[in-house]
Amino acid sequence: MSTQSNHLSNLEGLRIAITGGTSGLGLALVETLHLHGANVAFIARDEERVKDVAQRFAGTHGIAGDVSRKDATHGLALRLTAALGGLDVLIHNASSLGPVPLALLADTDCEDLEVALATNLVGPFRLTKALLGALTAAARDGRAAMVIHITSDAAVTPYAGWGAYGASKAALQHMSRIWNEELQPHGVRVIDVDPGDMDTPLHAAAVPDADSATLKQPGESAAEIVELISAANGEEVAA
Q1: Cβ neighbours of 1 (radius 10 Å)
Q2: Which stretches within the chain are classed as H helix?
Q3: Of 17, 56, 182, 220, which shows the fewest CB atoms inside 10 Å?
Q4: Phi and psi for 67 in degrees, rounded to 5?
Q5: Relative orientation angle of helices 163-183 and 123-140, to the nearest 10 degrees
Q6: CA distances from 39 to 89, 109, 154, 193 (A)
Q7: Residue 42 and residue 21: Cα distance in Å, rounded?
Q8: Residue 164 pLDDT more than 70?
Q9: Domain tally for the chain?
Q10: pLDDT value, residue 10
């Protein structure tokens, strides 16, 4: 068995939920976590793609739904915990660019800004809130309990044209830090992770003429995030 396989062996049976799990980084996370024995459930909007990914990685739990919709939140939370038998790690990966093609803020429709905020900020807030009971229960049982927000350098660097996305990710990043301060006493860690510029459909939509050879592959970023989860779970196991 490889060194990495030994290091990641403590992922066996870890209950992990991923939003935006049918393409890009989300799909790579589903594959990598499933490969290392985690019990994985994922959410995405396209029902057919959800079915395809669930069949491709037998044993994963695919749930069709839109995290940006308020009326979907509690149903998604219930389905996730029912599928997994609880929850240890929640990864907020689903994202919206806002306007496509990207637009200056002065040219951004209010509706496009609202979509970016609903998907990238408000949706993760609602779903985390709905799943706090499951996460704190996991922590009380001595299991790793963690929320991961996928953010971006656009959250800290004011790139022209990235206003809706950057503003929503900046708010997500700060919300992540506040959640962490508030939930640490309950044994739940909340972190934000910038996976870097990746060769994904989202990046292609934002920068159509980008050279894919200069971009990270989603699997590389997924492996880095899985290492973080494994390290955190190792600390819980040791404790």
Answers
A1: 6
A2: 3-7, 24-35, 47-56, 73-84, 110-117, 123-140, 163-183, 201-206, 218-238
A3: 182
A4: -70, -15
A5: 20
A6: 10, 40, 32, 21
A7: 5
A8: yes
A9: 1
A10: 82
Cβ–Cβ under 8 Å, residues 9 and 227:
no
The average pLDDT across 52-74 equals 98
Catalytic residue flag (residue 165)? yes
Rg over alpha carbons for the chain, rounded to the nearest Å, is: 17
Domain with 58 in it: what CATH number? 3.40.50.720
| pLDDT (tens digit per residue) in 130-147 | 999 999 999 999 999 999
Residue 238 CB coordination number (10 Å): 7
Q: Which of 151, 165, 173, 189 is catalytic?
A: 165
Who contacts 117 (Cβ-Cβ below 8 Å, separation ≥6)? Answer: 164, 167, 168, 171
The percent of residues in the chain predicted with pLDDT above 90, rounded, is 92
Please give the residue range of the domain that contains residue 70: 3-238
Distances (CA, A) of 226 to 35, 91, 156, 168, 214: 11, 11, 24, 24, 23
CA angle, corner 169, sides to 187 and 8, nearest 5? 45
Reference 124, options 57, 59, 172, 186; nearest CA is 172
- Residue 8 is predicted with a pLDDT of 63
Percentage of residues in the chain with pLDDT exceeding 70? 94
Position 222 pLDDT exceeds 80: yes
**Mean of the per-residue pLDDT values of the chain:** 94
The pair of three-digit structure tokens given for residue 232, joined into one six-digit string: 């955190």
pTM recorded for the entire structure:
0.94
- Give dist(CA 31, CA 22) in Å, integer: 10
